[in-house]
Specification:
Structural class: alpha/beta
Distance between the termini: 22 Å
Helix content: 25-40%
Bound molecules: pyridoxal-5'-phosphate
CATH architecture of the largest domain: 3-Layer(aba) Sandwich
Mean pLDDT: 95
Low-confidence stretches: 1-18
Largest sheet: 7 strands, mixed
CATH superfamily of the largest domain: Type I PLP-dependent aspartate aminotransferase-like (Major domain)
Radius of gyration: 21 Å
Length: 404
């Protein structure tokens, strides 16, 4: 694609999701907005993982109704919400979960920390596949656990970077004090949706070594190209018995500021221990988060289908753009998330690529190095935004590279 042909591509491709208008630019530049207020106003922020789209209309309506009441007292998750979540898990992943197997949380980073608090003893080790979302390092460390970091393997094929699991390295990293595997599925930042076969290989090693699995599936609804998501715990009953799954509507419906998520824990003893180890450490989920989740899980399937189409098209446009205009920057093909993973290791950029694009292109990406081993030389590019914004960021990056 040539850089001047954006308009026609965007209009043509936007038609399936036209009723939801993901092309609309919303001005988020106000104090306190993490994504837009952390850099000077001439910088396009393509970093932190929230989207620049409005949440679906039923969610906004539910929130407006809740706000109109004007009383913000304590609120508990009522049965209708629990049932809506169970119905969602069954409808979307063919995963049968009982209402009492759900534990509500005020967020998933809190959930990761609570998992470590409940199941990790000081001196135990947690195994993680890197590069990975950085709270996977801090949550075990906060609880006196050590980390075994297993790097994902990259296989480069022309302009494409494929991500592969190194089972042997994973098995080798597990020692007598390894009590926990914290998995990211789909995987932030590389965008890999783990296959049933890969999940099975990971689970087998964990079960054989009595390692508990914490599967953070916050990205589960944002698979691209209509691919289904396979929850780790849905693989087999024996896996479910050793698995704590963390989920939320926050990435899916763009609600991360509302403080809501949940854990699915099917093993009763583990669930009791998880709940007991909270004991007031974490607050209740936010009342507005509860209202939003209820609407999201019952009235927004069509919005989500349109979003998935829009994100899949954004990903394709981004990859085509890179291939045609910045071939020295390689990339993975994300199968889920709205995160591009750009390989700048051989792009001829002097110094840190994050700094280069911030200084020379005025585009803020996420520095791959912050995601741990295997992240150096990479950049995470958030394409959960109107296509015109994404293309402007890419145009600026291209110009900066051409001038260097
Ligand atoms: C894998 C993963 N877990 C958790 C979170 C954040 O969850 P929360 O905002 O609910 O703490 C993110 C945000 O990007 C994420 O990518």
């Amino acid at each position: 694609m040539n850089p001047t042909s954006h308009a026609s591509f965007s209009a043509q491709d936007a038609s399936p999701s036209a009723t939801f208008d993901f092309d609309q630019i919303i001005d988020r530049r106000r104090p306190g907005c993490v994504k837009w207020a952390s850099y000077p106003s001439d910088v396009i922020p393509m970093w932190v993982a929230d989207m620049d789209f409005r949440s679906p209309e039923p969610v906004r309506r539910a929130l407006a109704e809740r706000v109109a009441e004007g009383v913000f007292g304590y609120e508990f998750p009522h049965d209708a919400l629990t049932q809506a979540i169970c119905a969602w898990l069954e409808r979307r992943y063919c995963w049968r979960v009982q209402p009492n197997e759900i534990v509500f949380l005020p967020g998933l980073v809190s959930g990761l920390n609570l998992v470590c608090r409940a199941f990790g003893r000081v001196g135990d080790s947690a195994v993680v596949l890197t590069p990975v979302y950085f709270p996977f390092f801090s949550a075990p460390a906060n609880h006196g656990m050590t980390l075994a970091k297993v790097e994902l393997r990259y296989r480069v094929e022309g302009q494409r970077v494929h991500v592969e699991l190194d089972d042997e390295a994973f098995a080798r990293a597990i020692g007598p004090r390894t009590s926990l595997f914290i998995h990211c599925h789909p995987h932030n930042p590389v965008g890999h949706a783990w296959t049933r076969d890969e999940l099975r290989r990971l689970a087998e090693i964990c079960l054989a070594n009595d390692v508990l699995i914490c599967s953070d599936e916050i990205w589960s609804d944002l698979t691209l190209d209509g691919a289904p998501h396979v929850p780790m715990a849905s693989l087999a009953p024996e896996v479910a018995q050793r698995c704590i799954t963390l989920m939320a509507p926050s990435k899916t419906f763009n609600l991360p500021g509302l403080g809501f998520g949940f854990a699915v824990i099917q093993n009763e003893k583990l669930r009791q221990r998880f709940v007991a180890s909270n004991n007031g450490v974490l607050p209740h989920p936010n009342a507005l988060g509860l209202a939003a989740a209820q609407a999201a899980y019952t009235q927004c399937d069509d919005w989500l289908a349109a979003l998935q189409r829009y994100l899949s098209a954004n990903r394709d446009v981004m990859l085509d753009y890179l291939a045609e205009n910045m071939p020295e920057v390689r990339a993975t093909v994300p199968q889920a998330t709205y995160l591009g993973w750009l390989d700048c290791r051989e792009a001829g950029i002097a110094g840190n690529p994050y700094k280069f694009f911030l200084d020379r292109a005025r585009v803020a990406l996420s520095d791959g190095a912050t995601f741990g081993p295997g992240g150096e030389g990479f950049l995470r590019f958030n394409f959960g935004c109107p296509r015109a914004q994404m293309l402007e960021a890419l145009d600026r990056m291209r110009a900066a590279l051409r001038q260097s």
